[in-house]
Amino acid sequence: MTQVPMNHFDRSKPFYPLVMHYLAQLIGIKELALRGIVGSESLEALVDRIPALGAVPAGNEAKVTEVRDELRKLNGPLELRSEYQDNHITIDIDDIARDVVANHLYLLSSTLRSAGSLLILAHEISKDTPWHDTGSLWEFLRHSRNAAAHGGVFNFLHGEPRQPTLWGSFVITAKLQGTLLFKDRAGAGLLSPGDPIRLLWDIEQAYPQMSA
Question: I need a surface site. Which of 78, 87, 107, 205 has the fewest CB within 10 A?
């Protein structure tokens, strides 16, 4: 099966931002782990890596200062506005990076919740749309969503599944009762973290009338 680049998702359709945020979270864990191991780059090192700044004409130092200020914000702490506190909650990125390194096994074991969240969100924004039907792909997403929202385990009620639920070689039937949605370390379960992306891609291709 050909691997589909994530940037092939249509930006005018609903799955694009969901997939991007999912990928950003996973990539962010890797970047934070790297930062926790090698440390953060100094502001001066970041400035030196922008060749265009070396060609700024004399008298336009304000442009350099502007760029340095923006880099400082990107490299510095994360500030999240809190209406409750009427100020900002400040998160030290290096503290988080060190935490990721120190607790990586525990944190990585919970990444499947992010994969499940992607399925939940994709289902919720699609279920009441004109292009949603009871086709096999949508049914596969619905049952996967239900498993993700209920402890990551398939739990069928009221005679479900009532419609054919197929996706490639995967078939969801009542025999999966109690089965993990995502594979654990021992290999028990149905899907892996890349499968939500592929499932949403296949749905998007099968329903060209989809729109955001």
Answer: 87
